[in-house]
Specification:
The protein has a single domain, classed as START domain (Alpha-D-Glucose-1,6-Bisphosphate, Chain A, domain 4). 29% of the residues lie in helices and 36% in strands. It is built from 4 helices and 6 strands; from the N terminus they run αααββββββα. It has a 6-stranded antiparallel sheet. Strand 2 and strand 3 form a beta hairpin. The radius of gyration is 16 Å and the shape is globular. About 5% of the residues have low confidence.
């Protein structure tokens, strides 16, 4: 829950440059270099990164859908140290005036035959804390910048 309107939160989430301000991985890897292509905050904008292989590795994130004040969706491509694809989305639901529930979902594609490991591996258990920390940082940034 963030004490702000969906529009205030959406304005932060739609920009790839703002993502790095609350992303746990960006905060952990000071060596990462980011390159933006396209108009940030619009569908098709892409931010590529290259950093420490043990922390952030190398890849890109592209804005794939924007639903003003309701949803932001991204596709991610990881190229190093391991190749992979994922889909991420933020959904915003105003629960009462200036209180918004923010949900961050992340789906990682697991091709065959590696998908068998999904029976024994939980992305939520492995990385859930990173997403929770990212949301808590987002909350702090938004609420403190709004003077709440």
């Amino acid at each position: 829950m963030i004490k702000a309107s969906p529009s205030d939160i959406y304005e932060q989430l739609k920009k790839l440059d703002h993502f790095n301000k609350f992303s746990v991985w960006a905060q952990q890897d000071s060596s990462a270099v980011y390159t933006l292509k396209g108009n940030d905050g619009t569908v098709g904008a892409t931010s590529a990164w290259k950093g420490d292989p043990e922390i952030s590795g190398e890849g890109s994130i592209t804005i794939t859908a924007l639903e003003p004040n309701k949803k932001v969706e991204h596709d991610l491509i990881f190229t190093r140290p391991r190749k992979g694809k994922a889909h991420s989305s933020f959904s915003l639901v105003e629960t009462e005036r200036n209180n918004t529930k923010v949900t961050w979902t992340f789906n990682l594609d697991t091709p065959r035959p590696w998908n068998i490991f999904n029976l024994f591996y939980s992305l939520d258990k492995e990385m859930g804390k990173d997403f929770e920390t990212g949301l808590a940082t987002l909350k702090l940034l938004i609420e403190s910048s709004a003077g709440r």
